[in-house]
Design brief:
Layout lengths: L1 H24 L4 E8 L5 H10 L6 H10 L9 E7 L3 H8 L8 E5 L6 H9 L5 H7 L3 H10 L17 E5 L4 H15 L2 H10 L3 H14 L6 H13 L7 H7 L36 H8 L8 E4 L5 E4 L2 H20 L1
Antiparallel strand pairs: 1-2, 3-4, 5-6
Helix pairs in contact: 2-3, 5-6, 6-8, 10-11, 10-13, 11-13
């Protein structure tokens, strides 16, 4: 009885595949389309691109055929030229053969970069930057990413989730591939001890990345990261606005060397001078050092800091002490200007 049931299943699968083959080989074709497949990209990303370009009918049916034929993990990187309405089977067979060689390029994403700053760098390697920016705010695309990264808990955008590093891509890589690799890099550097620490602090990943991104912008020397983190943690604990100039710079159309009082009054949830708590999203992509600083702040009672002008800061526990530090900082700034 079991043998008969197994034989029936095999017959149904064979019939299904035969039907697909018939449909695929006799479907109409028109127009050439180039597709770039990067190494290590999930089959579902490739399928989505094929559907978008009209090469296959439906992503789900392509993936079903790939799984039945055990080819979903055998798609090879390279450049492929397809015709519209090619169909699942022929597209799949082509993708399991080595595609045309492509120029590999390196791109450096500096720590603290915003999505738009990253886009400008990607433009130099032929990436569609308009689509790249759009995808970082696309809830459906972020939902798709979350299937691969369960801790990506549906943020409003991917600002702060594109880990700063040096990456190797094919020239003209698709924005989907670029984003996937950068988000994957973030989750590769995060470890269990960090997630455990988030639980201890009663913070989620989005909050940690947001705080870390502010630390990244404010700190210029590594040893001060935990100190600056402590200032912000202390302010959050007593419900005092963070008062970070970096959050103001994020909402300005152009970076200012020095903010004025009008800037501090801008009505925006990113204005940490008038709104308590963290801004809605990170203000850039934090480094691993800043993420660690956000998780393990120094055990100090500082509430204020002011830049000296040499990359370091004066720290203070009280506003009275802070005002004295401001006077000292101004003297140092004047000396730097006169040099």
């Amino acid at each position: 009885m079991k043998a008969l049931r197994l034989l029936s299943i095999v017959f149904i699968v064979a019939l299904f595949v035969s039907a697909l083959l018939w449909i695929e080989f006799f479907s109409p074709v028109e127009g050439d389309i180039d597709i770039v497949v990067s190494k290590g990209v999930p089959a579902s990303f490739v399928a989505a691109k094929l559907e978008e370009k009209g090469i296959i009918g439906r992503e789900k049916s392509f993936l079903a055929v790939a799984r039945i034929l055990h080819l979903d993990s055998k798609i090879k990187a390279g450049k492929y030229t397809f015709r519209k309405n090619l169909g699942n089977f022929r597209a799949l067979i082509a993708l399991t053969r080595k595609g045309a060689g492509l120029q590999e390029v390196y791109v450096w994403i500096p720590e603290g970069s915003t999505v738009r700053e990253i886009a400008r760098r990607l433009n130099s390697i032929g990436v569609d930057t308009a689509r790249f920016i759009k995808l970082t705010e696309d809830s459906a695309f972020i939902e798709r990413l979350a299937r691969f990264f369960p801790r990506l808990n549906h943020p409003p955008s991917l600002e702060g989730y594109l880990f700063p590093d040096t990456y190797k891509f094919y020239w003209g890589a698709s924005p989907e591939v670029v984003i996937y690799k950068m988000v994957r890099r973030l989750f590769n550097v995060l470890n269990d001890s960090m997630y455990k620490r988030m639980d201890e602090l009663h913070m989620n990943l989005h909050q940690v990345l947001t705080l870390a991104s502010i630390i990244e912008k404010e700190a210029q020397v590594d040893f001060e990261r935990p100190l600056i983190s402590a200032v912000f943690h202390n302010r959050l604990r007593i419900r005092k606005p963070l008062e970070s100039c970096a959050t103001i710079q994020y909402i300005l159309p152009e970076h200012k060397f020095r903010l004025d009082y009008r800037d501090l009054k801008i009505k925006s949830p990113y204005n940490s001078y008038i709104y308590q708590g963290l801004p809605p999203t990170p203000i850039g992509s934090p480094s691993l050092a800043s993420i660690k600083a956000a998780l393990w702040p120094a055990k100090v009672k500082y509430l204020y800091f002011v830049a000296k002008g040499d990359g370091t800061h004066f720290f203070a526990r009280s506003y009275a002490e802070h005002k004295l530090n401001i006077l000292k900082a101004r003297k140092l700034w004047k000396k730097l200007v006169l040099k």
